[in-house]
Amino acid sequence: MSNNIAGKVVVITGASSGLGEATARLLSSQGATVVLGARRIDRLQALADELTGQGGKALALATDVTQREQVKQLVDAAVAAFGRIDVMVNNAGLMPHSPLERLKVDDWDRMIDVNLRGVLYGIAAALPHMQRQQAGHIVNVSSVAGHKVRPGSTVYAATKHAVLALSEGLRQEVKPYNIRTTVVSPGAVDTELINSINEPDIAEGVRKFYEIAVPAEAFARMVAFAISQPEEVDVNEILFRPTRQEV
Question: pLDDT per residue over 188-197, tens digit each?
Answer without folding.
Answer: 999 988 888 9
